[in-house]
Amino acid sequence: MNASEMYQSRLKTxxxxxxxxxxxxxxxxxxxxxxxxxFTRRMAEMAKDLGLKDxxxxxxxxxxxxxxLDPSLGECFHNNSEFVGAPVRQAIKEKRADFxxxxxxxxxxxxxxxxxxxxxxxxxxxxPDKFGYVNLGVSCDYALAAIEKASTVIMEVNDxxxxxxxxxxxxxSEVDAFFESSHPLPEIQPPKIGEVEKKIGKYVxxxxxxxxxxxxxxxxxxxxxxxxLGDKKDLGVHTEMIxxxxxxxIESGVINGKKKQTFQGKIVSTFFMGTKKFYDFIDxxxxxxxxxxxxxxxxxxxxxxxxxxxxxxCIQVDLMGQVCSEAIGERQISGIGGxxxxxxxxxxxxxxxxxxxxxxxxxxxxKIVPYLDHGAPVTTDRCDVDYIVTEYGxxxxxxxxxxxxxxxxxxxxxxxxxxxxxxxxxxRFNRTWEG
Length: 435
Ligand code: COA
Hints:
Elements: H1 3-10, H2 14-18, E1 26-29, H3 37-50, E2 55-59, E3 77-81, H4 86-93, E4 97-99, H5 107-112, E5 120-125, E6 133-135, H6 143-149, E7 152-158, E8 169-171, E9 177-181, H7 195-207, E10 213-216, H8 220-225, E11 236-238, E12 241-242, H9 247-251, E13 267-269, E14 271-272, H10 276-282, E15 288-290, H11 293-296, H12 299-302, E16 308-313, E17 316-318, E18 323-324, E19 327-328, E20 331-332, H13 339-348, E21 353-357, E22 361-362, E23 365-366, E24 368-369, E25 387-390, E26 393-396, H14 402-410, H15 418-429
Parallel strand pairs: 1-2, 1-5, 2-3, 3-4, 5-7, 7-9, 10-11, 10-16, 11-13, 12-14, 13-15, 16-21, 17-24, 21-25
Antiparallel strand pairs: 6-8, 17-18, 19-20, 22-23, 25-26
Helix pairs in contact: 14-15
Bound molecules: coenzyme A.
Coenzyme A binds next to α8 and β16.
């Protein structure tokens, strides 16, 4: 049987694909924009009629409609995520969903070593090419590990999925069932850039030298920072994801990857989230190199590039420089993702810097605090933390004493909260404020 005949023989309807699920299965979904949304919607609609019970739905970033999370389907599905996206936050808040802490770069290993092995893996892909390969398009990350280990692999063949180059090609013989669909991919709109973002963007841009290799994390600020890099020269990209903000820099030649030590000239990433304009931009783009997340996010691989500057965001920083980036107190609202992967990689890179950028306040409360909120996990610990940037400046914390770290952090806190933080500093270090 040739590849084309094999594809035809495995082509089913979406309902036939849903019927491959069995009660008690663990279903791992394709990541972020790679989620098979037609499949997950039908699975929620059909679950009760099929008598499905106790299916663990596992994923990292999740952008879908969250139909399977409806409380009325509680017997059918149970969520376990390694990253809490907006649709899952309510289920987590109501204790209907679980969270498993995990470094993003270790997730493929968790799958391969049997910690979180899928019974079923379902994702989106492109139609097969003339050689019999479908393409994973926007999401490479853990898909190859999941395809290797899942008993059943289901793919939603969406002709609007872009083709990306790199480790994204999968032969049809590795997939058990396909169904075809045609719909636009979920879009993430670029962030709004206000005065605070402009000031932070300027401070971060000043920390990025010409020739640097950059990583930009998830959240509004990392993407906003790109708009301040237009005057730089010879930037490279080694990241876990990028979005629309990179397009002008690539088109103008600011990002050209000339100075990179790995994949020179290429933009290395493991997933993409953006607008349709961005998905069109990456389609068959020879500058793009998609790699599995156990490559892109391995701190030792990251560090092979000199001047690796990572830019991520966070929720709260205490006066020792301990950072929470994933929860508000006990309530998980996000995940560890690749934050520490890139902070460690940047810290090991020759000339590297690890930057955490955040507004000094949110909803009228300070994000720089004497102690992290009760129950808040430490995402980036005080030994790994490097630079914290707010709209009031830059605090370089590596190699600094606890007293000096606290002083530097207070100086970039919002002025309204400084008196209270200074009082804490004077109590903690038994001396008068040094300014
Ligand atoms: N106290 C209380 N609430 C807080 C808070 C704090 N200290 N900090 C943030 N929040 C709230 C915000 O007000 C916002 O609330 P809303 O949803 O009701 O508007 C919500 O938490 C999200 O904060 P925001 O700053 O808007 O998020 P963002 O989209 O810019 O993302 C992170 C910021 C930290 C959540 C995001 O960067 C992240 O998930 N990081 C961890 C993973 C990571 O860094 N990966 C890197 C590689 S991709």
